[in-house]
Amino acid sequence: MNNKEAVLVYGPSQYPYKFNETHPFHPLRLELTYSLLEELGAVQNQPLIQPSAATKAELELIHDSRFIEAVIAGGEGRLPDSAAEAYGLKTEDTPLFPHMHEAAAHLVGGTLRACDAVLADGYLHAFHLGGGLHHGFRGRASGFCIYNDSSIAIEYMRRKYGVRILYVDTDAHHGDGVQWAFYDDPDVCTLSLHETGRYLFPGTGHVTEKGTGKGYGFSINVPLDAFTEDDSFLDVYRAAFTEVADFFKPDIIVTQNGADAHYLDPLSHLHVSMNVYREIPRLAHQLAHAYCGGKWVAVGGGGYDKWRVVPRAWALLWLEMSGQTVFANDHVPQAWINKWKDKAEETLPTTWTDAAIPEIPRRKEVTAKNNLTLEKALYHIRTEKQATRKQVDKHE
Ligand SMILES: [Zn+2]
């Protein structure tokens, strides 16, 4: 029997996307997640797609050919330093590594195959663990990202399937690359919830960034205050995602699922617990069924506590998507802990929820600030809705 509910896109062909052993964006995050799902028994009877590399023509849907040539040259050790800098390569965040073009093209290919699985092969949902490189620009690498798989996949779906896409990004960092790629496009709506750019990379994602020209109103940013906790994060997330979905009425939803808003994450200052990573995919799943006949593609993204946070967060997403949440009611499988405990740099978690998390200062102020930010972010949607309602009343 072939279960057409959900398909996982994953394979070791994605491990070579590795800057170096100590770099936070490490492929072990993928392997640990898959291993956890295996020990749960949550992948054995489920469909799996092995990612293949995107072609150069596919990469050129978004990226400049000169940038692609630079990435190829960089991976072959023949890119001069001055050129590397101009393309955002050979930086501390995004250093050169051997065969980086091939490795990055495999991450893009995975997201493209996930989209085809949903739009051509009859799957309702697809999860590509290795995707979510949302900082990649047309002509420049940035923030651990070389090619922007989501931007390419969105442009690919627009051209091949003529669909309108809602992209929802809950990584702790602003989804800048995807936002700027479609900033003037009314057929692609981007919603990014992230830690405010005041002190955090990439510094953009202000509430006033709403799109331009015909695309005005279709970029929505909700920059959250540092130390935001579960309740405020989820209140804002639920209101924003629900209202934006109702406003835009997408044909398909793409979610970027960076897991770096967790309080243990070393690279952000948000303060959520594992509970948020159970709720994020639950709402995405509901809204995909409410607005898109189920069509939902999910990708990974950031998340830099690779032992304690990322495997559980991404496993919860797959369990939600594939209708197997029952696996996360109990303990994290002992077999997974035994398999990795000698290699792990942290004590591996034994439960699916975080017990007691440290208290934060200024809880009330943080919540009030986030509510105000949400109001500003959704202002144009809420006023348009009111105007439409008045219009309808007048005609009745
Ligand atoms: Zn991030």
Automatic annotation (TrEMBL):
One of its GO terms (molecular function) is histone deacetylase activity. Pfam families: Hist_deacetyl (PF00850). InterPro entries: AcuC, HDACs, His_deacetylse_dom, His_deacetylse_dom_sf, Ureohydrolase_dom_sf. Keywords: Acetoin catabolism. The keyword Cell membrane does not apply. Transmembrane segments: none annotated. The keyword Phosphoprotein does not apply. Residues 23-318 form the Histone deacetylase domain. It comes from the Bacteria. Pathway: Ketone degradation; acetoin degradation. One of its GO terms (biological process) is acetoin catabolic process. Belongs to the histone deacetylase family. This is Acetoin utilization protein AcuC. It comes from Shouchella clausii.
